[in-house]
Amino acid sequence: FFSLPELSRQPGAEMASRPLVSVYSSGKEKNAVSMTLPAVFLSPIRPDVVNFVHTNMAKNHRQAYSVFQKAGHQVSAASWGTGRAVARIPRVHGGGTSRSGQGAFGNMCRG
Prior knowledge:
It is a single chain. With 111 residues, the chain is α+β, with helices and mostly antiparallel strands. Helix content is 11%, strand content 14%. It has one helix spanning 47-58; strands spanning 20-24, 32-36, 77-79, 90-92. The strands form 2 sheets. A two-stranded antiparallel sheet has the order 1-2. A hairpin with a 7-residue loop joins β1 (20-24) and β2 (32-36). The chain is rod-shaped. The mean pLDDT is 82.
C-alpha cells in the first residue's frame, strides 16, 4: 500500500462526508487500511458539467436513421408483360400476401 499526503484544508473541503476511506485487499484477509480521500472528491459538484455529461451520454443510445440506398428495392419484381390488362410496371412475385402482385420500382408505385 501507499500513503497519500495529508490534504490541505481548502475552501469547500468541509463538503466531504468521509474524508477517510477504508481500503480492503482483494484477498480473504479482513484487514483494512484507512486512507485520506483524494482532493478531487472535495471539489463541489458543478450542475453544468453534470448536465453536459448526462446529455451526451444519452446520445449513445440513439437509434441510427438515414437514407437507405436500397429503400424499396429489397424485393424481387418483374414485369408481367403485355396481355394481362395491367400496366407493364414490375410486380412483386409470390402469393399468399397482400404484397404479391403489387407494383414495384416505379415512380407511381407505393411501398
